[in-house]
Write a structure and sequence with these properties.
Length: about 350
């Protein structure tokens, strides 16, 4: 819900503030580069490419669908999950971002995120339907629909199993019901277990300790953010890190053993995975702005998309700004290519 409200606000500002707005970045033709960050420009419904070796930005290299939510890079192709269009658009990064035939997921699904289990099979979380879809990306067919829970949003592949978080937003009461994580066996596409977690599980990632870290945002009011830690060997909730605030997306820095949490409009919070110590909480966030998306690289650097400033900022592990990249309108999710 927060993403839709923020997108509406961004578009409204662009319409009303003709004089104050920056010039629209021109269409760019991006070459195939060895190391790149791909950026969703939610306000412009486009993709920017940051060439990390040349420190060059190519803006609006191609258009995406309605309400793009996530980018995933795999084997020379870039996949964009479009929540409003109910599809996954695909681009050939090695041939000028040539669009491929999109994968249609069906009306009423509202896809949020996808995860690959092999080169041709992906699982997609769907918010409105509360389902996880098994998709063959080579034939562009939906092979299975698995009922997960209410408001299915984050998804991950850990220890040979699919984990899908269910935010359980209740529109009738304007509140959140019990947050859960659904465990699915990709060999049979059957639900193995449903695990209760804290309020509003919005993202989940495998951490450096092999555990599944689930970002539970809270209710944006009196229930604050937590990291629910699930042991994927037993599929049990074993511990909790009280991070506070209202964290969003999670990026794991495997080099320095740190978890980074995006905070909308406020930058990043962080915590030490080994000690479960909060390093930067809601009162001392990193950067102090941005937080619409977060990602790390293999060298321990952090990338933060700044929705209001149309920028992606690169930081080192000590929060020093290494580079600032001007991208398209309202940047959000990112993906990285490395060779």
């Amino acid at each position: 819900m927060k993403k839709v409200f923020a997108l509406t606000a961004c578009i409204a500002m662009l319409i009303l503030a003709f004089v104050a707005c920056e010039d629209e970045p021109e269409q760019g033709e991006a070459p195939d580069v060895a190391t790149a960050v791909y950026v969703i420009n939610s306000g412009g419904s486009s993709i920017s490419v940051i060439d990390l070796e040349a420190d060059t930005v190519y803006n609006n290299v191609t258009t995406v669908g309605t309400y793009p939510n996530q980018l995933v890079y795999k084997n020379g192709l870039l996949y964009c999950v479009n929540s409003g269009s109910n599809n996954i658009t695909i681009y050939d990064t090695e041939n000028g971002f040539e669009p491929k035939t999109p994968i249609s997921l069906g009306s009423g699904q509202t896809p949020e995120n996808m995860v690959f289990v092999d080169d041709k099979t992906a699982y997609v979380s769907c918010y409105t339907s509360g389902k996880v879809l098994k998709v063959d990306v080579s034939t562009k067919e939906v092979k299975a629909e698995i009922t997960a829970g209410s408001g299915t949003t984050p998804i991950a592949y850990v220890n040979g199993k699919i984990y899908a978080g269910n935010t359980a937003y209740n529109s009738a009461t304007w509140s959140y019901d019990q947050g859960t994580v659904t465990v699915i066996d990709p060999k049979t596409d059957q639900v193995l277990k449903t695990i209760d977690v804290s309020t509003n599980p919005f993202d989940l990632k495998e951490a450096t300790d092999g555990m599944l870290h689930v970002v539970c945002v809270g209710n944006y009011n009196d229930v604050l953010g937590k990291i629910a830690i699930i042991d994927p060997r037993t599929d049990t909730w074993i511990d909790t890190i009280e991070v506070g605030g209202a964290p969003g997306n999670l990026a794991i820095d495997e080099t320095n053993n740190i978890g980074y949490l995006s905070v909308w409009g406020s930058g990043l919070m962080s915590y030490n995975i080994s000690t479960q110590t909060v390093l930067h909480g809601p009162t001392n966030t990193i950067l102090g702005k941005g937080g619409s998306g977060v990602m790390t690289d293999t060298e321990g650097n952090v990338y933060v998309s700044v929705w209001d400033d149309d920028q992606v900022i690169k930081l080192d592990k000590d929060a020093n700004v290494l580079a600032t990249y001007n991208v398209g309108d309202c940047p959000a999710g990112m993906a990285m290519k490395t060779e």
